[in-house]
Amino acid sequence: MDCIFCNIVSGKIPVRKIHETFRSIAFLDAFPLTKGHTLVIPKTHCVKMQEMTESDNADLFETVRILTGKIERLAPSSLVVIHNGKESGQEIPHVHVHLIPRRQEDGVGPVHNMFTKKPTLNDNELADIVSILKNS
């Protein structure tokens, strides 16, 4: 497997490391969207979040929680983003969390601005969705 994030974990690719635990590592994004844009990854290769172990998940999100406060030393707010699979925009098939410092003047706006084709759902469709999600 030739995963860029696995190569970072193994030390084959140098990064500007911010934080590291036994299960995760955080480093500055090589192509930042804002100053301080950071990635947090599990050290174990998983493409999607649901593939992670409970221990890896707990560690990853505790690291995200800790670093979010530090990211907000650079800007008043932050955006926490996970693309979970190719269709969602995931470019590197290894779980990673983007921590992006945000300012009002950065022009990005809320997540709802990302979607130009929003569904209109009736009560039956909404009930079907609830049923699928509850019973899965």
Describe the structure.
With 136 residues, the chain is an alpha+beta fold. The chain has a single domain (4-135), classed as HIT family, subunit A (2-Layer Sandwich), CATH 3.30.428.10. The chain is 27% helix and 19% strand. The protein is built from three helices and five strands; from the N terminus they run αβββαββα. The protein has helices at 4-9, 54-71, 123-135, and strands at 17-20, 24-28, 38-42, 77-82, 97-102. It has a five-stranded antiparallel beta sheet, covered by helices on one side. A hairpin with a 3-residue loop joins strand 1 and strand 2. The longest helix has 18 residues, at 54-71. It is globular, with a radius of gyration of 17 Å. The model has no long low-confidence stretch (mean pLDDT 94).
Give a brief description.
This protein is α+β, with helices and mostly antiparallel strands and 136 residues long.
What tags apply to this protein structure?
single chain, 136 residues, HIT family, subunit A, 5-stranded antiparallel β-sheet, 3 helices
Termini separation: 31 Å
Structural class: alpha+beta
The residue fraction in helices comes out at 25-40%
The CATH class, by name, is Alpha Beta
The residue-averaged pLDDT reads 94
Tell me the major beta sheet.
5 strands, antiparallel
SSE series? HEEEHEEH
CATH architecture annotation name: 2-Layer Sandwich
Count of alpha/pi helices: 3
CA-based shape: globular
Please state the CA-atom Rg, rounded to the nearest Å.
Answer: 17 Å
- Strand line-up across the major sheet: 1-2-3-5-4
Strand content: 15-25%
CATH T-level fold name: HIT family, subunit A
What number of structural domains do the residues give? 1
Number of strands: 5
- Superfamily (CATH H level) name: HIT-like
Uncertain residue ranges: none
